[in-house]
């Protein structure tokens, strides 16, 4: 199981000095072995995953929070004195199950009980099933269709560009067994419009880094069906619409 493998890797770092692996570097090193690149700083790790819809804010006792966690999940702590950091986050660790965690603090990487103090509170957690979407060495691939014609496959993390031209907005052509995926918009300032027609249906503007859900097998020329705030929509700009599978 993937979660067991994550804990095995985390365990292999036990005793590594804090000077070599601080909390965020430790977590980053673990997930690098599963081909997932986290940010370097704990606060930006949490913020990035929160913006992707992977991490979520929490509060409560350690027992209450532990009930929401599975082995391998990520946990972030905040301290009120770190006012310049996002959510005042200044520590991160990996949940090991049964109320235990792996984290790096003080002497280095250690295995200990899930903890909170009057100054340190758990404010964010992330389910790694949403972070790592595969359980094999090859990783997940997504079929790319245009008008029911298979063009190829996109590996997890590949940048796929859908060129945009003027004219009428086509209705998406469904392909058998569509699969809902998530994509990250990597362009700038794309208009988001409702399908099937754009007239009077502007829903907003896509920003670089926005994450959308999409039916990857309902790509049409030259648009791709995406889910925006619960509605079927597409995003476009004059320079081409860019999405990265996440």
CATH class of the largest domain: Alpha Beta
What is the fold-level CATH name, i.e. the topology of the largest domain?
endopeptidase fold (from Nostoc punctiforme)
Major beta sheet, strand line-up:
9-16-10-13-14-15-11-12
Radius of gyration: 21 Å
Spatial shape: elongated
List keywords for this structure.
endopeptidase fold (from Nostoc punctiforme), 6-stranded antiparallel beta sheet, Jelly Rolls, 8-stranded antiparallel beta sheet, single chain, alpha+beta, 246 residues
In brief:
The protein is of the alpha+beta class and 246 residues long.
Structural notes for this entry:
The protein folds into 2 domains: 2-131, endopeptidase fold (from Nostoc punctiforme), CATH 3.90.1720; 141-245, Jelly Rolls, CATH 2.60.120. The chain has 5 helices and 16 strands. It has helices at 2-12, 23-32, 42-51, 62-66, 128-131, and strands spanning 55-57, 74-78, 89-97, 100-105, 108-113, 121-126, 141-146, 149-155, 159-162, 180-185, 190-194, 202-206, 211-215, 226-228, 231-236, 241-245. Strand 7 and strand 8 (149-155) form a beta hairpin.
Reconstruct the topology from this structure.
Layout: H1 2-12, H2 23-32, H3 42-51, E1 55-57, H4 62-66, E2 74-78, E3 89-97, E4 100-105, E5 108-113, E6 121-126, H5 128-131, E7 141-146, E8 149-155, E9 159-162, E10 180-185, E11 190-194, E12 202-206, E13 211-215, E14 226-228, E15 231-236, E16 241-245
Antiparallel strand pairs: 1-6, 2-3, 2-6, 3-4, 4-5, 7-8, 9-16, 10-13, 10-16, 11-12, 11-15, 13-14, 14-15
């Amino acid at each position: 199981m993937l979660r067991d493998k994550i804990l095995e890797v985390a365990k292999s770092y036990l005793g590594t000095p804090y000077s070599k692996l601080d909390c965020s570097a430790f977590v980053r090193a673990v997930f690098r072995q599963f081909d997932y690149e986290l940010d370097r700083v704990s606060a930006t790790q949490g913020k990035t995953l929160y913006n992707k819809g992977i991490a979520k804010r929490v509060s409560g006792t350690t027992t209450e929070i532990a009930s929401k966690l599975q082995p391998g999940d990520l946990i972030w702590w905040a301290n009120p004195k770190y006012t310049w950091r996002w959510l005042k986050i200044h520590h991160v660790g990996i949940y090991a199950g049964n109320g235990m965690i792996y984290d790096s603090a003080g002497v280095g990487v250690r295995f200990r009980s899930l903890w909170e103090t009057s100054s340190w509170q758990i404010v964010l957690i992330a389910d790694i099933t949403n972070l790592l979407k595969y359980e094999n060495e090859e990783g997940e691939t997504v079929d790319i269709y245009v008008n029911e014609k298979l063009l190829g496959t996109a590996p997890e993390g590949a940048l796929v560009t859908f060129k945009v031209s003027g004219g009428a907005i086509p209705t998406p052509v469904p392909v058998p067994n569509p699969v809902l995926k998530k994509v990250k918009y990597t362009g700038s300032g794309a208009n988001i419009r409702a399908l099937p027609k754009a007239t009077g249906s502007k829903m907003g503007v896509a920003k670089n880094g926005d994450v959308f859900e999409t039916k990857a097998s309902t790509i049409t020329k030259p648009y791709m069906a995406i889910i925006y705030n619960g509605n079927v929509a597409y995003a476009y700009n004059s320079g081409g619409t860019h999405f990265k599978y996440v």
